[in-house]
Design brief:
With about 750 residues, the chain is an alpha/beta fold. About 50% of the residues lie in helices and about 10% in strands. It has 22 helices and 15 strands. Helix 1 (about 15-25) crosses helix 12. It is flat. GO terms for molecular function: protein tyrosine kinase activity.
Length: about 750
């Protein structure tokens, strides 16, 4: 028989837990009212504090007409960044400014800021016993500054250059006067700082200007003396005279060389023309001569006359011969004149060469002078740069000094800050707020009392109840039921079946309470009593133990053994076999044996274990730690994760699983869908339901479904379960018993035989 866990888990009974709030409402209400009353008394009697705020804008105050010339290019730059504003915040809250405000307003004379002026008797007693420090030991100024820092709040408004000065006080007028005084002291301090800076600048610039004036005068004198000593006369274009002359001679030398080269080339061309007897018409200098042009005209005229006369006269005619003689003379004259031109060009080239030689000598002389002048010019430029730099610095200092002196004389020092908004006298105290304080006290006390009450109820154990998904100890196998035996000394007493809490289909089976139910109940009892395989238990004690063997005969209810049940399922082509075991775990062996029998016949069989203890699946898997139907219903696993192979047959099995049964029970409506999917994949799905009723197995049935009632002994419990199933729509109920079943003679190698 199965062994249940000795200790069951517990859950929190939320209804019982929150019902404790209603049971303790009086205590909760009294505590809440007391806390609310105390908060109201505190808010009503507490000293009123008022708060006022002054805003200071950090912005340039310099006019465009008075801005110094050196700052004209900085108009678009922000005067302060985020760090600059934070620096000004620290300056405003500094002790120096607070001291000025304290002295101006006489805060040391007020008990609010000087605790030593008005000490209560309780405070004096605490000081005497050493539980409180004596304020007289601290200087008055330090006490006042400490109180001012406690009541002062200076901060920069985000993404602006506005600084807010916030102050709280028991006097509303003082709360407005102090931040205004702090802002005024800050602006006055900034003005004083600018005045001090301006005066320091003027005092610094005055002697510096005097020194610079002497230095500039000395530097310029050095420049003039060096120029006179070095004879560095300046020509045009601000250059030394030697350098300028060298440039001019170089240009003239280039021209002379070009003219010489042109004359030589022309003379050479005329010479070649005369030597080779070529035409002189290609030489421009020859054609440009007036005499040659006239000779050419006369030559043309003679050739024209010879041509005219040749039409009427022969070539030996005296006139033609005379004209030809004149033409020859003209050619000789032209060549003679060309030779003269050539000689002139040669003379011109000689003259240009002589001029070129002279210019080269002059250029060389000027080169040496220019090099020396360049070296001297470097020294002179250095002296000039020094004098120029000092003069520029002097002019800058003079400009700044004039600006500083003019601002100092006219007392014009604009501060880059102004009071954007003055503090107004507050009419309403910011502390205490009666409504929020009382409301917060009410809500907090109510919440605390509710939490305390719930924790007391939880820790007392009154809000705990047994968990619905109790776990069972691991069992290796389910022992097959044996034939009943009667002891010799006393009548046989069958052990009571274990009580199960099946989360999916279990329902309690009540006894028949009406006469209408008594008749079928009695008929079922009579039919089962007549069955030959039912064990007859003697009413009196026996001297020897008697073993009653079951017979294969069947009663009118149709009890069959494992083999007959398997044959019935195979022959009928059933797709589902629902097993109900009112006697508990031992009777669940019928479903296991039938499933294995059908699987050995070659059909694809799956056993679905819906018992609370896993009595149908653990003998097939040797463990209860596999994921199963509860994991599938709780969406923690898929079909491939929950289907496992039987260790002793070809049957597949889906165990109970390891998920929370309560969570899985919420998805019990998915069982019909799961059953439909399994019947599609397998030839037969065997479901062990445990001690279920007709209503519980209703969601598991479908087309081609056979319902079996597994029994060990024909007692009232089995009879009652059979009657209920028949009355509730299952007239074809079949009783099956595992008693007398023997496992196959040749089990599969590597597997054990069915549990015995």
């Amino acid at each position: 028989m199965s062994v249940q866990s000795a200790a069951a888990d517990v859950d929190v009974d939320l209804r019982q837990l929150f019902a404790s709030l209603a049971r303790n409402w009086l205590r909760i209400g009294l505590v809440v009212l007391l806390a609310t009353g105390l908060a109201f008394a505190f808010a009503s009697l507490a000293t009123r504090h008022y708060k006022a705020e002054t805003q200071v804008e950090i912005a340039p105050r310099e006019s465009i007409y008075t801005r110094p010339a050196s700052n004209n290019n900085d108009t678009d730059k922000p005067i302060l960044d985020e760090q600059g504003v934070a620096t000004q915040v620290q300056i405003i809250s500094s002790n120096e400014i607070l001291k000025q405000v304290s002295q101006k307003l006489g805060l040391e004379k007020l008990p609010e800021f000087n605790e030593a002026l008005d000490m209560s008797a309780l405070s004096r007693a605490l000081v005497l016993v050493g539980l409180k420090s004596d304020p007289m030991e601290i200087p008055t100024e330090e006490r006042v500054l400490k109180k001012m820092h406690e009541k002062l709040n200076v901060y920069g408004v985000e993404k602006t250059r506005i600084i807010a000065v916030e102050f709280s006080s028991e006097d509303p007028k003082l709360a407005a006067a102090i931040p205004d005084a702090i802002a005024a002291a800050y602006i006055a301090g900034q003005g004083a700082a600018k005045l001090e800076s301006n005066s320091a600048a003027a005092d610094f610039l005055a002697p510096e200007i005097a020194d610079l004036q002497r230095q500039v005068k000395d530097a310029e004198a050095k420049v003039a003396a060096y120029r006179a000593q070095s004879d560095l006369l300046m020509g045009g274009n601000n250059s030394v005279l030697a350098t300028q002359q060298l440039s001019e001679l170089s240009s003239e030398l280039s021209k002379v060389r070009a003219n010489r080269a042109a004359a030589e080339a022309t003379a050479d061309g005329v010479r070649r023309a005369l030597q080779n007897g070529g035409s002189l018409d290609a030489v421009p200098e020859v054609l440009s001569s007036d005499l040659i042009q006239r000779l050419r005209e006369r030559q043309v005229e003679l050739r024209s006359n010879i041509a005219d006369l040749s039409t009427t006269l022969l070539g030996n005619h005296p006139r033609i011969r005379a004209l030809k003689s004149q033409l020859s003379d003209l050619d000789a004259q032209i060549r003679s004149e060309a030779q003269k031109i050539m000689k002139g060009l040669l003379m011109q080239a000689e003259t240009a060469k002589a001029r070129e030689n002279q210019l080269v000598a002059d250029v060389n002389t000027l080169k040496a002078a220019s090099a020396q002048a360049g070296e001297q010019q470097v020294d002179l430029d250095a002296l000039q740069r020094d004098a120029t730099a000092k003069r520029q610095q002097l002019e800058l200092y003079l400009t700044n000094y004039r600006e500083a002196a003019s601002r100092q004389d006219r007392n014009y020092l604009p501060v880059d800050a102004r009071i954007a908004s003055k503090a107004s006298v507050p009419s309403e105290a910011y502390f205490p707020k009666v409504g929020p304080i009382v409301g917060a006290a009410f809500a907090a006390s109510l919440l605390i009392m509710a939490i305390v009450t719930l924790l007391r109820e939880l820790f007392s154990g009154r809000a705990m109840r047994p968990a619905s998904g109790s776990r069972f100890e691991r069992i290796d196998e389910v022992a097959m039921p044996h034939v009943a035996q009667t002891p010799a000394a006393k009548p046989f007493v069958r052990p009571e079946p274990a009580v199960f809490q099946e989360p999916f289909i279990h329902q309690e089976l009540p006894e028949p309470a009406h006469e209408a139910d008594a008749e079928p109940y009695a008929a079922a009892m009579q039919a089962m009593a007549e069955a030959p395989d039912v064990v007859a238990m003697p009413a009196t004690a026996a001297t020897e133990q008697t073993v009653v063997e079951p017979e294969p005969a069947r009663s009118t209810l149709g009890e069959i053994d494992i083999e007959r049940a398997a044959e019935k399922l195979i022959s009928s082509g059933a797709a589902r076999a629902i097993f109900v075991s009112p006697e508990g775990d031992e009777a669940a062996a019928s479903a296991i044996l039938v499933a294995r029998e059908v699987a050995d016949a070659g059909l694809r069989v799956l056993l679905l274990d819906l018992t609370a203890s896993g009595a149908a699946s653990r003998p097939m898997l040797d463990s209860g730690l596999f994921p199963g139907i509860t994991n599938l219903l709780a969406s923690e696993a898929q079909f491939s994760d929950v289907i496992h192979a039987d260790l002793y047959s070809d049957c597949h099995v889906i165990p109970v699983g390891t998920a929370d049964p309560v969570r899985a029970m919420r998805a019990a409506d998915r069982l019909p869908i799961i059953m439909q999917s399994l019947t599609t994949a397998y030839d037969l799905v065997v479901v062990e339901c445990g001690p279920a009723d007709a209503q519980g197995i209703g969601r598991l049935t479908g087309d081609a479904t056979e319902v079996f009632l597994s029994m060990l002994e024909a007692d009232d419990e089995v009879t009652q379960a059979a009657v209920k199933l028949i009355e509730n729509g299952y007239p074809d109920l079949t009783l099956v018993t595992p008693l007398g079943h023997e496992p196959p003679g040749n089990p599969v190698p590597g597997r054990r035989t069915a549990a015995a």
